[in-house]
Write the structure tokens for this entry.
Amino acid sequence: MLRPEQPQIRPVSTATAVGVVSGVPAEVASVEYFGHDCLLTADLPGSERAPAMSVTGRLLAGEHLTIGAAVAISVSGTALAYPAEAARAVPAARRSR
């Protein structure tokens, strides 16, 4: 689980300039500007271990991104994750609450 301020989505050129050498490469799928910030959705490629997926986050409006732009996605701080097996271990009656 992530807090809203933890996902970091940066244009590849900005990520390189501030020294972010790690992160997951993604491509901007949509951008909605709201004046002071924007809502960005980026598509992550799939791999042998994980399916393709999309990530949505907020950015300050100073970053003007277009659909198709290359971005780097990283997480600031500690993230909490549960393995897929843990979700299957919960009884079906309890999941439906």
